Amino acid sequence: MKPQFYDPNKQNKLERDYGNYLHLLKMAGEILDYRYEPMGLRLAFKTFYKPDFLVIKKDCFEIHECKGFMRDDANVKLKVAAQAFPWFKFFLVRRAGKAWDIKEVQISD
Fold this sequence. Notes:
Elements: H1 13-27, E1 33-36, E2 41-44, E3 47-49, E4 53-56, E5 61-66, H2 72-84, E6 88-96, E7 99-104
Parallel strand pairs: 5-6
Antiparallel strand pairs: 1-4, 2-3, 4-5, 6-7
């Protein structure tokens, strides 16, 4: 993959901080790579979900969505995307003090 260059005007502070965290994980060898807003996933006619981060691991691709707070429409899109694209693992990322609270999105069958 090509190197990732970030436009600081495009990311909010939470996304910038999490991108820095992912960079540290990459340097430590815990993940292979990551990309910021790499794609749009079509959920329905004229309805798309643009993930914050695609995280590449040895055995899977993960979608990480950073949220300071969750609006209803964003929550629905995240759950619909997790159900529509089961080959990705979806995670909701929130700041927990100086650490990160990263929880896998659970979908009901």
